[in-house]
Amino acid sequence: MNCLDDIKWDAAGLVPVIAQEHSSGDVLMFAWMNREALKRTIELGEAVYWSRSRGKLWHKGEESGHIQKVHELRMDCDNDVLLMRITQQGHEPGIACHTGRHSCFYQRLENGVWTATEPVLKDPQTIYSK
Asked: What's its job (predicted)?
């Protein structure tokens, strides 16, 4: 895939990726991809990331069932950040965050304190208990 050669990968071979909800424009999460993750994302039409903490590919939803269907991939002007327009699918559509919320960006700075501003839609213990 020649399109992978156009990306400015960092020293670790990664590129930052922003997942944005296709319908609302909400930013749902931020993650990383390596070449293989991006290649698989393009092939599957579903988000596959590189998990730095696990040191392996992570097909979003493989444990939670919260799959991200990819509608569009965009690259920024410096070729070093990707924007992925997605639809969050699964057992509980609309949950992108491992905390059971719609978005990973649920905390807002209010008077010097980070405050949760989005509700938990489903208890994460019930999502990840198998």
From this structure: Catalyzes the hydrolysis of the adenine ring of phosphoribosyl-AMP.
Query: Does 78 belong to an annotated binding site?
Result: yes
Residue-wise pLDDT tens digits, 43-55: 999 999 999 999 9
Establish if 103 belongs to a structural domain.
no
Q: For residues 67 and 61, give the distance between their C-alpha atoms in angstroms, rounded to a whole number.
A: 4
Indicate whether 18 belongs to any domain. yes
> Is 3 labeled as ligand-binding?
no
The number of distinct structural domains making up the chain is 1
What is the rounded distance in angstroms from the CA atom of residue 75 to the CA atom of residue 3? 11
- The domain in which residue 92 lies consists of 2-97
Does 77 show up as a binding residue in the annotation?
yes
Mean pLDDT of 11-23: 97
* Phi, psi dihedrals of residue 38, rounded to the nearest 5°: -65, -40
H-helix or E-strand containing 35?
A: helix 35-44
% of the chain exceeding 90 in pLDDT: 82
Is 75 among the domain residues? yes
Rounded to 5°, the CA angle 91-95-100 comes to 100
